[in-house]
Every structure is written in structure tokens, then in C-alpha cells.
Amino acid sequence: MHGGHSRRGRGASTTRGRGHGASGRRQFRGRGRGRGRGQSSHHQSFQFSRLNEEEDGSGGEESLGEESEDEETAHGLAHADEEEEASESEPEQVLPTHSYQTLLQTLNTSKRTSEPARKKRKLEPDTSTTKVIPLEVGGTDASDTPSNGDEAETARALNEEIEADEETEDAVDASIDSDDEEVMFRDPFEKHYSAATEKEIKEAAGQVESKAWQTTSSTSESGLRVARFRPDAPTKSSIIKSPKDMFLKQRILGTGTKVFTSLKSDEKYLAAAVFGYDDVLHGCRDVQNTSRLRDLSCLHALNHVFKTRDRVLKNNSKLSAQSNGEILDLRDQGFTRPKVLIMVPTKQACVRFVDSIVKLSEPDQQENKSRFLETYTQDDSDEWLDKPEDFRQLFGGNHEEDFRIGLKFTRKTIKYFAGFYNSDIIIGSPLGLMRTITTGGGGKNSKKTQDADFLSSIEVVIVDHANALQMQNWQHVDYVFSQLNLLPKDSHGCDFSRVRHWYLDGQAKYLRQTIILSDYLTPEINALASTHLKNISGRIKLQPEYPGEMLGVSSLVSIPVSQTFLRLSSPSAQGDSDARFKFFTTSVLPPFLRDPKRQKGTLLFVPTYVDFVRLRNFLSTSSEAANLSFGLISEYASHKEVLRARSHFLSGRHTLLVYSERAHHHFRYKIRGVKKVIFYGVPENPIFWSEVAKMLDVVREDDKRTKASVRALFSKWDAMKLERIVGTQRVGRLINDRGGDVFDFV
Known about the structure:
With 746 residues, the protein is an alpha/beta fold. The chain has 26 helices and 18 strands. The strands form 2 sheets. An 11-stranded mixed β-sheet has the order 1-2-11-3-10-9-4-8-6-7-5, with helices on both faces.
């Protein structure tokens, strides 16, 4: 398990993308916001869109709820859209006099007397024409402020009218889109969250807690292994046959249809589970399908957010229309507004998810987009052109690992950097989310108080590139999951009369859907699922049949290479590290100690940092290894240390080079001078087997004294990663064979 250490590859531990410290920028208080925050001092036409909202003093992304000075006190979707104007603290854009008068006349003549009355809003008092607005608060210079108080107030009133009309349109759209009761009965969203009774939920939750899962296994036409776990009798694996089977909202039906047509046959199994609100463990992610899986996940997230929002708007209309003596019990909300949590490893991965969300939702406006691009994007380095494709996909662009951002949706707008309690979707890294929870999201000088209430009503969790998150610090992932769906400590303006009963009963975790996308599954991912995935709808696990990564080595290396697997006896998973160390020091290392010169050019690949430190200490302090010259390359080694170790290894000054898996994950070094490879443990990522073995290609053909070889130590606890190396059909024999502990493949 890769725990206890967090690594930002390529020395990016303190980078914040591209947007800080632009020269010549005026600053009034706090820190600057980078390029693109200013506005022209003269407007040529009136615009209904508001300027970027006031950002909190901690930089926006650190804030949980401070969206503006006049913060929305009600979290719920029932009132958030109605109160959004009051929560905006930025100055309104005001049109020049002639354009304004023309538009006002047009609106007045086109206004219908039959339209519903607008909700009265409390307007901010008129401000002085000499008021100076700080750049980082309003994103405008003082010259942008209105020169006429009456025009400013009238402009605000027009914006108010437009927003109220938009809300009315929303309610109408919600009614049209959701009134078909037959469709509602078949819609998995309605069946999962509304159809089940309190008694049924409690009974199913009891079965989940007792782990009374009913399991079925099957194989798809292409060889994909599908396992289903349900608390009741498992149903046959389904497949999405048309966009209608996804029950998409009308506003994303067009883009959703394009996503559906791009899916491969196996991905339609995944789509059925995703839109059916099952928990998903998907171990088939790769560089070819990652964009399709991302679009599918974002489509589901948007569909969930829009259905939740429209249900609330529809019920708002019912409450407004009820008679005086009528009492309606409409339960359609959680404790707080955020409904979707997306965990990704880097800021650039966040950008890709946001791009997908924008592509699918097609908003008319995007507030704070320039700040988002400035803070989260970054150009690739030219020196990476020779790196593998999976490396470029993970570390391309801005690869910072400490971030979180809230996205808020209205009918026509996406707002970036929304306060968490006013957001619909939260995207962040495990490290960024963990820090937000433990510090309460405050700035450096604010009081540190733990606050996980913004996660109390999360209904869909998407974890993308889980294997990359494991290479950071898996404990952060586990911690974030432990904070999901807890009863909140504060009300945050919650209307408890609208909260669903299973939230009040503390059973939200049994309705939460979790989607984990990974290149491969690991014991840590399985343990997370066993501990935190309790969806009463069930769970589905998808993983491929592995042919074996070792089969491709011969095509990568121009010389013959023998591949040998050495099985060691390990009685327990907890004692595996001790058993492995004892086996290595007593069976593998002695030849190096007897005749170090004959072992020159040996690369020792170590999967975990804990084992790396243990071996380093032994080789440095043991009297037995006093005559053995060795070098070290870990993920924490400086650039100078890496260059020195590689140089001494190539020249033969170092007999042995100890190389950590996480160093290879973050940097993908191409080490020269390798004649033998020893895997202290099987690598978690099967690609690393081929990449390390390919280093043997530098062996000189005229060096007949040395034969290229690869040896790997393994125990029965390595079955999952060993399967990816030797193949699904062979792994059972290596684990269980009683004829010997050495297995050679030539």
C-alpha cells in the first residue's frame, strides 16, 4: 500500500498553475487574481450577465461557504435560485444611456400582463458614484462603476426581472420534463431515491451491513469479467441499448446521445450500472477509453444534478399553488446543496472534467472562467515528448495535487469557484479535500475548525484514475470517504421540512452511488469498496482478462531475456514485508556480497517506499554489505542525486542501483547500463514491467559474460498484480503449484 507520503511529480509541490504575480497589476487587498480579471471601462452594449462574483479572502477554492458578503443562508435548491441575486456582491454592468433607454422601452412594450408576479427582492441601497471597488472583489476597476444612481438601480431591477423569468421558465421546464408518471416509475433516479419506503431501506441497509451479498459472475462477449453484488436476488446484467435507456433530461439529451453513440459494447455494460445507480468498480480504464468514460461520468453527474434541481422547482410550484388548508409533505432535498463529488489526481484532470461538463451542458455563460483557466491550466513541457502516453495523460499540463473547486449551475450559467455550500458539483484532489475538511476551508490566519458538512448530502461520488491516487496517498482517499454522509453539525439554513427521511435517519450512505474508474484494481481499492460502498442498489465490478505483460518483453528487447519468478512463503499479509526482506537477504543478496564485480549492472526495483527505506538502511549499515557499492533513486531524491546515481551505475562504479516504483511513476527514467533486473516485488502497474525490462536493451551484444535476465519475488498476497504480469490463465499455477517455488519463462 502506498500510504503516508504524498508526491507531486516533477517538483510541482508549490506551483499554482499560471496566474499569480503578474507584473504591474493593481492590488488593493489580499492576493491578486492573475490575468483576465479586469474589465473595460466603457461598455458598448448592455449585458444581462453579471460580472464575476466576489471571491472570498482565502482565494475562493479554500472557502466552504463564503461565496460573497451577503452569503446565501439557505443551502437548498428550493430557494437558492431565487436568492442568487442577493448573494451576488459584484457591481452590475450598466449600459450607455442610449442603449439602456432602447432596451427598457423594448422590455416594457413586450411585457405581458398575464405573466406571474415576480418575487420581491431586497435591493441594495444606492451607492455613491465615487465608491472604489477593489479589483479582486468585483473584478472591475473603479471606472466601471455606474455614474448615475438611478440607472444602476434600474439595471439591477432589470437583472432581477430576467432572473425571475428564468426561474419561471425553469419551473415550467421541470414540469414538462417530469410529469409523465409512467416514465418516472421506470426512471432509476426516481426508483432509487423516491420509490423505496423507509422500511424497505432499513431492511436493505441491514443486509448490506451484515454483508449478505448475493453474487453472480459472468463474462461479456469481448471477455470482460463482470461480477454483481446485491443485497437481494441479483438480476441479470443489463446493457444500455439506446439513449432512452439513460432517461436523460431534455437539456442534455442531444449531447448525451453523442456520448452514447461513442461507447463501445463493454462500456454499455458500464453505462447500465452507472445510470442504474449501482456502485461501480471499473478496472479497465486506459489511455484509449479515458475520454469516453469521463464523458459518461459527467453526463450522469449532470443528469443527476438537473433532475434533483427540477424536482425541487416543481415542488416549489406545488407549494405556491396549495390552498390555505392543504398540507403538502414534499421531501426532495438533503441537508446541504452539493450532490456530486468528483475526485481526480491533478488540476489538469480537473480541467478535463470541467471541459466535459461544459461540452455536455452547453451553458450560455460561464462565470469566473478566466480565473479558472489561469489557475488550473498550464502548457506541457517539450521535454516530455518522449514520455509514454499514459504518463503525458496523467502529468500533462498543471499536475498540482492540492486543489478543490465548486461548480454551481443555473439554467443558463455555470459558476466556477462557488462556495461549497452553494455548489452542485465539487471537484477536488484527495489532498485538497482532506485539508479543506480538517481546516474548515479557512485561510492561513483563520481559525482551524473541522467541517465536513458540505459532504453530508453527496449522492454521487466519481473517483477517476484511482490507481494514480494510490501513488499519491491512499489514506487521503479513505479519509474523505469516511467523512461522507455524516449528520451535519450545523443547519446551514436547511429547510428540514423538505429533507428526505433517509437523510434524517442517517441512512444517506446506503443511497449514495460511488463510481471508481481505475487502470486496474488493487487490494486497497477493494478494501475501500468493502468498507465504504454500501449502496442498497448493489455493486458491479468489471475487469478484463489479462494475457500477461511479460509476453510482450521479447518484442521490446533485441536480445534474449529470461524471466524468472521466485515464490516466497508468507503466512500473513501483515508479515509479508518481513518475510520478503528475510528471503531477499538470505537467498538473493548473498551472490552480490561474495562477488560484487560479477553482479555489475543490476537494477533492484522496489514497489513500496517502506521497503525502499528498509533496504537502504540495511545496505548502508550492515557489515555484510560493506563491500557492495550501490546507488539510490527514490521519488524524493534531488535532481543532482539522481544524476550522480545514474552516472556511477553506468560507469560500473555502483554494482547495484535501488530504484523505487513511485520514482518511476513520477519520472519514467530511462536508465542505461542495466544488465539484470530484480523486482523486489511485482510492480502494481503492469506497464512498468515492460518499461523496466526494456532497459535491458542497452546490454552490449559483445558482452558474452552477462546474460540478460529478469527475476521477481512474489507471495500469495501478490495475486492481483501478479495476474497482470503473467496472465489470468497462469496466475493460479504460480500461486498454488506444489512442485516448486521457481518458475522460468524464456
